[in-house]
Recover the amino acids of this structure.
């Protein structure tokens, strides 16, 4: 009886042990499956998502960088175009100003000389003639005068200096009266020497007895030519 009871206890212990072993084995296999499958899959999935996200951000960065470079290039192009236009405009304005100065279409000032010719009363010299004024103007041009005026009438290539009567002179179609004030801008020494040198136009008039003075002026002001410059034969 005792032996049967003992055997029963042993059998039950073995059964319990086998059940526990089976349970432990099942639990171990479950943990192994979780470790090898679920965690790995989750990690792999997370890594893939991160890689995809990183690739997306990289693509967005490259696209933004490209747009930035394109915008920077356009801005630089606009700046260069603006600078080029401004430089072109400046050069054109400079050229236009130079042309207008050459044509006598702008007021100018600079160092030069002033010649004053007065009628002499009581002398049998006669009135100063247009060709005498013209001779002085030509002498000033040869001496390097950059601008000339007679009684505030600008002398240009189209200017006319003519007698309208024995006593009256017209310059640029305008009647002028004595005293005749001729202004010239240029090297003062050259201009004066060109007039007073032996045989110079002013030298000859002075020897005839005309009252003529020449003054060096640091700031000679000469007005622009007011008439329209017209040509007859240039097409």
């Amino acid at each position: 009886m005792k032996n049967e009871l003992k055997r029963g206890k042993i059998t039950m212990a073995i059964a319990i042990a086998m059940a526990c072993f089976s349970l432990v084995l099942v639990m171990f296999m479950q943990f192994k499956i979780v470790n090898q499958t679920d965690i790995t899959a989750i990690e792999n999935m997370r890594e893939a998502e991160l890689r995809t996200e990183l690739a997306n951000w990289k693509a967005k960065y490259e696209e933004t960088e490209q747009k930035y470079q394109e915008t920077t290039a356009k801005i630089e192009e606009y700046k260069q175009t603006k600078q080029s236009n401004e430089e072109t405009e400046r050069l054109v304005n400079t050229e236009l100003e130079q042309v207008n100065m050459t044509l006598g279409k702008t007021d100018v000032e600079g160092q030069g000389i002033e010649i004053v010719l007065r009628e002499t009363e009581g002398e049998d010299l006669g009135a100063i003639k247009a060709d005498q004024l013209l001779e002085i103007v030509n002498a000033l041009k040869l001496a390097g005068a950059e601008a000339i005026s007679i009684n505030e009438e600008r002398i240009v290539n189209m200017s006319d200096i003519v007698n309208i009567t024995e006593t009256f002179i017209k310059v640029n179609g305008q009647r002028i009266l004595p005293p005749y004030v001729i202004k010239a801008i240029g090297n003062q020494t050259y201009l004066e020497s060109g007039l007073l040198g032996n045989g110079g136009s002013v030298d000859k008039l002075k020897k005839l007895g005309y009252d003529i003075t020449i003054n060096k002026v640091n700031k000679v002001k000469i007005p622009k030519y007011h008439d329209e410059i017209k040509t007859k034969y240039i097409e």
Helices lie at 2-103, 130-142, 188-196, 201-208. The two ends are 150 Å apart (CA to CA). The chain has four helices and eight strands.
